[in-house]
Amino acid sequence: MGLTTNQILIGSSLALAAAVSVVYLLYSKKKKVSWRKVANVSKIYLYPIKSSRGEELESANITSFGVGKVGTEHSDDRCFLVVSPNGQMVTGRQEPRLVMVKSHVSLNSITLSGPEMEDINVPIPTNVSDAMNCRVWGNDIAGVDCGDEVANWLQKYFNADYRLVYYPRNATPRDARGEISSPPGKIVYHDCAPCNILSEASVDDLSSRVDINISARNFRPSILITGCSAYEEDSWTNVKIGVVEMKFMKFCARCLLTTVDPTSGIKDSDGEPLKTLKAYRQCDKTLKHIYGHDPLLGVHMVILNPGVINVGDSVYVS
Q: Which helix or strand (DSSP H or E) is residue 142 part of?
C-alpha cells in the first residue's frame, strides 16, 4: 500500500528534525568548553574606597562591576573616592596613609576607621542631582559629595582639604581601560578593570627576592588564589569559579602604590618591591605600547557571568 501525502510530509518532517538535532548535537559538542581545576580561592577583598584597606569577605557577589556583598545586586567595590577640592582623585600614591583607612559598607551607609581616629558612620547620599564632576585618570566621572562631617574626618586624618564622594548605584559606569579587552568591562572608580586575580605563589616568589616584608595586600587583588604555581595566572584566558565566569582583559601593570607598606602607610625608601619586580617581570616587546616599562603581576578580568563565590571554591580555567 502506498504512502499518503500526509504520511510523506510527516516522515519528511521527522527526518529533517532528526537531521537538525544531529547537527545541533555536533555543534554543541564542538562548542562545549572543557574546564580543568587549577587552584582554589584563598581570599576575597572588597575595597569600598579607592586605595583604602581591603575588607576580607568569606563570600562575595561578583557583578559585572566587580566584588559586592552577598544579598545585594550591586557592587560597592571602589564606589567611593577621596577627592581634592577641584574633584581630582586622591589615592595611596599621593596619600600613602589612605591604605590604612578601613571602610565597611552596608546598604545605606559606610563606616570609616583609621589609626588614632574615632570611627565615623556616613549615610550614603541619595540625591544624585548633587553630583559633582570628578577626575579619575583623566576621565570625567560623577561623584555625589558625602557631606561635611566625613570631610572633617578626612581633614583631621590627612591634614588636607579632601572630600569623600560616592558613585550613585543607578548611574552609568564607564568602560574598562582594556586595550586588549574583549568584551569590554564596566568600572566605577577602578583604575582599569572590575576584577583582579593574583596567586599566593606569585607573591611568595617575589617575596623571596626582596629583603622587606610584603604580602598580597601590597598588590590589592580582588581574588587571591592558592594551589597553583608562581605566575601561572598569566596563562589563564577563561576562569570559572562556581557559576561565575571571567575572561582575561589585560595583565596588571604595577606602580608605586606597591611600595607602600599596607600596615604602616609608609613608602619603602628603596622603592621595593617594585624595583625588584621591574628587573624580571617586563612584558614582551610586542606589548610595550600597552605596558611600557611597568612590571606585570596578576591579571585583570572582565565578568561574563555574575554570581556568588566563596573562599575555598575551586578555580577552573579553559
A: strand 139-145
209-224 pLDDT, tens digit per residue, is 999 999 999 999 999 9
Task: Please check whether residue 252 is in contact with residue 297, taking contact to mean a CB–CB distance below 8 angstroms.
Answer: yes
Q: Please give the C-alpha separations between residue 77 and each of 195, 209, 316, in angstroms, as whole numbers.
A: 10, 31, 24
Residue written as grid cell 572590575: 194
Q: Are 249 and 301 spatial neighbours (Cβ–Cβ below 8 Å)?
A: yes
Cell representation of residue 7: 504520511
Find, among 160, 135, 131, 161, the residue nearest to 145 by Cα: 131
Using CA atoms, how far apart are residues 295 and 291, in angstroms rounded to an integer? 8
Q: What is the pLDDT of residues 130-174, one digit of tens each?
A: 788 899 988 888 899 999 999 999 999 999 999 999 998 777 777
DSSP state of 281: -
Torsion angle, alpha carbons of 184, 177, 175, 237, to 10: 20
CA dist., res. 107 & res. 80, Å (int) = 14
